[in-house]
């Protein structure tokens, strides 16, 4: 699975570079689409492997894990928004 993640990361980096050079969309739209596609792929993978149920139960039973995931999500969103506000059009 780690090898697959590394291959996907490599392909994604090259694809992002090509999209940005071709000026198909702006950076925030690219990040949004990438996040949605990644979330859907992860949902399918974890449903198929049975890991989703265990992950949800773990988050439900351990509030620290849930808080860490919430903090990461908020930090990611804040960083994306801060980066957008710095952009000069």
Describe it.
The protein is mainly α. It folds into two domains: 1-49; 50-89. The protein is 89% helix and 0% strand. It is built from four helices and no strands. Helix 3 (51-61) crosses helix 4 (63-86). The model has no long low-confidence stretch (mean pLDDT 83).
Give a quick rundown of the structure.
The chain has 89 residues and is mainly α.
Proportion of strand residues: under 5%
The total count of strands amounts to 0
Radius of gyration: 16 Å
| Average predicted confidence as pLDDT | 83
- Outline, from the CA principal axes? flat
Instruction: Please describe the biggest sheet, giving its number of strands, its sense, and whether it closes into a barrel.
Output: none
What percent of residues adopt helix (DSSP H or I)?
Answer: over 70%
Number of domains: 2
H-E order: HHHH
**Separation of the first and last Cα atoms:** 40 Å
Oligomer: single chain
Could you list some keywords that capture this structure?
flat; mainly alpha; 89 residues
């Amino acid at each position: 699975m780690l090898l697959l993640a590394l291959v996907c990361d490599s392909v994604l980096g090259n694809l992002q570079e090509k999209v940005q050079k071709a000026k198909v969309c702006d950076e925030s739209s690219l990040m949004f689409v990438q996040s949605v596609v990644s979330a859907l792929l992860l949902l399918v993978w974890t449903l198929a492997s049975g890991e989703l149920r265990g992950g949800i139960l773990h988050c439900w039973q351990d509030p620290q894990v849930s808080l860490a995931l919430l903090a990461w999500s908020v930090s990611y969103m804040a960083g994306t928004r801060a980066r957008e506000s710095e952009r000069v059009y």
